[in-house]
Amino acid sequence: MFLPSSSRRGFLKNRIDHQLYDHASIPATLQQLFGIPALTNRDAAAHDVTPLLSLPALRTDTPITLPNPAFPVAPPIAQRALPPENSVNTRSLPGFLNLAMRRDMAMSDPAAQPTIVARVRAIQTRGEAAAVHPTSASQDAGCRSIIGIGA
């Protein structure tokens, strides 16, 4: 079990323990501390961590709170997105357009299906695909507005 020094607050003494612990050690420890029966054979066989609880009182030489981690700032979506003039034949957009077209065809009059196919085939760039994407839930009538077929 590895506990970083910054999280060893409480009854844990600074020491190295070579015993194997896993997630089943948590219920095994509760069983040992509170005298409850094992839930499964796995936690019955697991090592509990009570030997690590070796101090009579809480430690006071460790920080009570840790500083917030410094997460890298992700670039805005606009910077990560492909340029609108790029082809629709990249990444997951072809699959999405196909799925939207199939859903639209399933919800439309069979006579409208050739028009739906033609409209999807006419989309050549990511910008054209984005231009027909709904901007609110009220515009999305079963993906019909995604590919530009009436709502």
Quick tags:
mainly alpha; disordered C terminus
Describe this structure in words.
This protein folds into 2 domains: 48 residues, no CATH class; 61 residues, no CATH class. The protein is 32% helix and 0% strand. Helix 4 runs antiparallel to helix 5. The relative contact order is 0.12. The N terminus and C terminus are likely disordered.
Strand % is under 5%
Order of helices and strands: HHHHHH
Strand count, sense and barrel status of the largest sheet are: none
**Outline:** elongated
Tally of distinct domains:
2
* Overall mean pLDDT: 75
Cα-based radius of gyration, to the nearest Å? 29 Å
Q: Tell me the distance between the termini.
A: 58 Å
Poorly predicted runs: 1-9, 134-151
Helix percent band = 25-40%
**What is the tally of helical segments?**
6
Architecture blueprint of SSEs:
Blueprint: H1 25-34, H2 41-45, H3 77-80, H4 93-107, H5 113-121, H6 126-131
Quick summary:
The protein is mostly helical and 151 residues long. It has two domains: 5-52, no CATH class; 79-139, no CATH class. It contains six helices and no strands.
